[in-house]
Amino acid sequence: MFNDIGLLEVLTIVVLAVLIFGPDKLPKVIQDVAGFIRKIRDFSDSAKRDIREELGPEFKDFEFEDLNPKTFIRKQLENDDLGLKDIRDSFDLRKEMGDVADAVNGREEAESVAGPAENGPVDLTKRPEKSAPVAAGERPPFDIDAT
């Protein structure tokens, strides 16, 4: 419950409790708070027990943590009855993005399979000349000032 509270926060709470309640009343306050938390836990456990009894035997393995959407989705994905893992593994995001980039740049499918290694590395520091238009299958020059 309090996994993210560090030593400094605990020390601050203790100092504030001593200042607010005083050293004489502090043990009584701690006992009252502990008793209150215990009563809340007992009430919660009895309510869960009553709900499970009312739901019947078909919900005997029902956990209230399953009502949290993140937990529910995680359990369903681990179950994988639909074969979602195969679909996820077959999807190659880099290839899809490369295909989209090729379609935007107007390159052919054969050129995208060859990849940029045939064209060589692009020198980003070299300024392009304002000359001939780009031939089909060539990359347009990169203008570093235009970005």
UniProtKB/TrEMBL annotation:
Species this chain originates from: Streptomyces koyangensis
InterPro entries found in the cross-reference section: TatA/B/E, TatB
Gene for this chain: tatB
GO molecular function: protein transmembrane transporter activity
Gene3D superfamilies: 1.20.5.3310
Record region (Disordered): 102-147
Protein name: Sec-independent protein translocase protein TatB
Role played: Part of the twin-arginine translocation (Tat) system that transports large folded proteins containing a characteristic twin-arginine motif in their signal peptide across membranes. Together with TatC, TatB is part of a receptor directly interacting with Tat signal peptides. TatB may form an oligomeric binding site that transiently accommodates folded Tat precursor proteins before their translocation.
Membrane topology: Single-pass membrane protein
